[in-house]
Amino acid sequence: MDENNHAVLVLALVFLAALGGLGFLALSGSTGQAVRGSDTIKPVFVSGPNVDAKVGEFYTYDAMVRADVPPLQFSLQKAPAGMLIDKDSGVVTWTPQRGQDGQANVRIMVLDGMSRSSEQSFVVYVSD
Questions:
Q1: pLDDT greater than 80 at residue 65
Q2: What pTM value is reported for the model?
Q3: Which CATH number does the domain housing residue 89 bear?
Q4: What share of the chain is helix, strand, coil (3-state, %, to 5)?
């Protein structure tokens, strides 16, 4: 979102608040058009993870989400020891250690600015 769209969004939210909170307004990430909160959809994952990893090697996955209402917050609901996710960007990082070879079950949750969530589950196959 560029600075002009951001300014329009802020002004629209201030206007709605001044009118007694008649609804929620946001800019659609896909179209840049103003939409009411009731017209938006919950976040949807639009990327697929790298499902192969090696013990001792850095693993990364950038979880990409289509969402109409920012901000987004990411979290790991299920993950092997040592796996982390950046709560703002959705980037997953991990370096599998000895003893973590085999299958690692992962579940990511994203929450949008209207507290709607989506999850993505996958298995990372770790080789030695």
A1: yes
A2: 0.70
A3: 2.60.40.10
A4: 15, 40, 45
Task: Give me the amino acid identity at 26.
Answer: A
Among candidate residues 66, 67, 64, 68, the one with its CA nearest the CA of residue 27: 68
Residue 99 tokens read as 């003893």
Token readout for 123 is 């298995």
* DSSP classification of residue 96: P
DSSP state of 37: G
Domain coverage including residue 15: 3-39
Domain co-membership, 13 together with 65: no
Spatial CB neighbours of 57, under 8 Å, sequence gap ≥ 6:
95, 96
Q: Where are the alpha helices (DSSP H) in the chain?
A: 3-18
Whether residue 57 sits in one domain with residue 15:
no
As a whole number of angstroms, the distance between CA 27 and CA 31 comes to: 8
Residues 78 and 103 reside in one and the same domain = yes
- Return the residue matching tokens 């997953």: 92
Q: Are residues 55 and 22 in the same domain?
A: no
pLDDT of 83 reads: 98
